[in-house]
Amino acid sequence: MKVKFDEDTCIGMYQCVAEWDAFSKDKSAGKAVLEGSEEEADGIFVREVPDGAELDAKFAARTCPVDAITIYDDDGEQLIP
């Protein structure tokens, strides 16, 4: 499972931070940060979801009010949102 995070879309509500510890707050930028990710494209960050963290990742994506977080299965199929 993979997570993609669109930092430019993020509005800094930090609901993802409460749901999954892979996200942290960058208060100076007013955005969340996806820890351990690599920048895939301008402002798009990607990382694998570790075993056991799938539910937390899904909750983080579902709680994002602006759909800045997308979850994909191992086949590349979009699961959330």
TrEMBL record:
UniProtKB keywords: Electron transport, Iron, Iron-sulfur, Metal-binding, Transport
MF terms (GO), sorted A to Z: iron-sulfur cluster binding; metal ion binding
Domain of life: Archaea
Coiled coil: none
InterPro entries per the UniProt record, alphabetical: Fe-S_cluster_ET
PANTHER family membership: FERREDOXIN
Record-given protein name: Ferredoxin
